[in-house]
Write a structure and sequence with these properties.
By secondary structure, the chain is α+β, with helices and mostly antiparallel strands. The protein has helices spanning 42-65, 102-112, 116-123, and strands at residues 5-8, 16-20, 23-27, 68-79, 89-99. The strands form 2 sheets. The protein has a 3-stranded antiparallel sheet with strand order 1-2-3, with no helix packed on it. It has a two-stranded antiparallel ribbon with strand order 4-5.
């Protein structure tokens, strides 16, 4: 089991430093949420995970199949207007450049639909446990 660590940035309203292996990223709430908007918020990370997974999956698949993909740019649009009633909508668009036939583009679209995070968000039951412990010191 791998661990992701977050620690509050001193003297900020909410900001956290996210540590994943040797990578660090600042996370914060928007001004509306009470933060200083000095980094993406958790919803941004959730949405970005989907977009990144689709792009990486397409690049991996294209390389494996010998498809000539030069670039992949992914856009994720969020519609959280019905989130409180149980529906959170994400629309992704992958802009792919390269020497590709229409059939290959269709194949890459099908592959993007099967990226692991897409499956995780739509086909897997996620069980979450939360423990709160007193921080000493």
């Amino acid at each position: 089991m791998s661990a992701i660590h977050l620690q509050r940035v001193p003297d900020t309203a909410m900001a956290q430093i996210l540590q994943v292996r040797h990578h660090a990223l600042r996370i914060d709430g928007t001004a509306t949420e009470g933060g200083d908007d000095t980094g993406p918020n958790p919803h941004d990370l959730y949405d970005a995970a989907l977009g990144a997974c689709k792009a990486l999956t397409v690049l991996w698949y294209a390389r494996k199949k010998g498809m000539e993909v030069h670039d992949v740019r992914t856009e994720v649009q969020r519609d959280a207007s019905a989130e409180r009633s149980g529906t959170y909508r994400l629309a992704t668009t992958l802009h792919i450049s390269g020497v590709l036939t229409d059939a290959q583009l269709a194949e890459l679209q099908a592959v993007a639909q099967k990226c692991p995070v897409h499956k995780l968000m739509t086909q897997v039951t996620t069980e979450i446990s939360t423990t709160v412990q007193r921080l000493e010191g």
